[in-house]
Amino acid sequence: MKKFEEKTVTTDLKYTGRIITLQVDDVLLPNGKQGKREIVKHPGAVAVIAVTDDKKIILVEQYRKALERSIIEIPAGKIEPNEAPELTAMRELEEETGYTCNDLRYIQSFATSPGFADEIIHLYLAENIVKMENPADLDEDEFVELLHVSLEDMEQMVISQKIFDAKTAFAYIWLKDYLK
Amino acid sequence: MKKFEEKTVTTDLKYTGRIITLQVDDVLLPNGKQGKREIVKHPGAVAVIAVTDDKKIILVEQYRKALERSIIEIPAGKIEPNEAPELTAMRELEEETGYTCNDLRYIQSFATSPGFADEIIHLYLAENIVKMENPADLDEDEFVELLHVSLEDMEQMVISQKIFDAKTAFAYIWLKDYLK
């Protein structure tokens, strides 16, 4: 998995933030020349496809400042330092939806933007979900609205682009196969 | 699509690069408090699911410095200034694979990392593809290896995580339905 490897010559850290950092690497290209790579470092995230016993999918609508609009997504969130992804999945499910689950299954992982970022999302399926009496709160800068939708509703949301992110688009076509 | 809108109080540009810029916005949250959003601006991209007449899918292996490994992806690339996404699709297909196509169909668009970036990928299906005699060259810092794979090969690549990015994972399960 090192084909066409680009060895790092120098790394120049340009910005360190609360969530992401940005660095520019000078790299040695496979042809011996040098190139520059702008790289955003991100702690990684988990996303949860949560399905109720009557086959409704739990989604959250939230404002995404980067896009300057609200979109509808599967529950998701950043991995905290030293947190196992399974625990992130359970925590985000609880914080964002007020549900917990008795069956959590790993589906797969993927990079979201390999051209400029190292963010990896780990995707889980949550079944046998149960509403909690006193779920943990959202982060203080998070505001979400909960939706319970059928697969047909989800299809309409893809068509109307209310579902407009990669992980949720993936979840929709994954569920089309899983729930049929 | 403005639910829970976060109005911009100030924007602080932290880094301007060749491909991306990074800014930190102070925003007014729905509860009246202020928050900070770290935002990466990206020109947007196009990705192409290219299928040969004998139902092979054309993939490219390339090194992704952000991930420090090579991964296998559907052909994709950044939208140039004022370039229509359909033209980006045709250009990237030609540059990365040496093919052109007679049928190009828009599938859908999605944000790749709405939590911290505005990158949007427009996804196309290319059919009736034809090898070109003198295709345009890759960018001088791009090195890719071409693969022609069956849907079954693609599944193994997902399992082995050689396919490890969101758009290509999406392409695989979209093709599972389309090619059956």
Please tell me about this protein's structure.
Two copies of one chain form a homodimer. Chain A is of the alpha+beta class and 180 residues long. Chain A folds into two domains: 7-41; 45-178, Nucleoside Triphosphate Pyrophosphohydrolase. Helices cover 19% and strands 44% of the residues of chain A. Chain A is built from three helices and ten strands; from the N terminus they run βββββββαβββαα. Chain A has helices at residues 85-97, 151-159, 166-178, and strands spanning 7-16, 21-28, 34-41, 45-50, 57-64, 69-73, 76-78, 99-111, 120-131, 144-149. In chain A, the strands form three sheets. In chain A, strands 7-4-9-8 form a four-stranded mixed β-sheet, covered by helices on one side. In chain A, strands 1-2-3 form a three-stranded antiparallel β-sheet, with no helix packed on it. In chain A, a hairpin with a 5-residue loop joins β2 (21-28) and β3 (34-41). The model of chain A has no long low-confidence stretch (mean pLDDT 96).
Mind telling me the CATH class of the largest domain in chain A? Alpha Beta
The H-and-E topology of chain A, N to C, reads as EEEEEEEHEEEHH
Structural class of chain A: alpha+beta
Largest pleated sheet of chain A: 4 strands, mixed
Number of domains of chain A: 2
Shape descriptor of chain A: elongated
CATH topology assignment of the largest domain in chain A: Nucleoside Triphosphate Pyrophosphohydrolase
User: Which oligomerization state do the chains in this entry correspond to?
Assistant: homodimer
CATH superfamily of the largest domain in chain A: Nucleoside Triphosphate Pyrophosphohydrolase
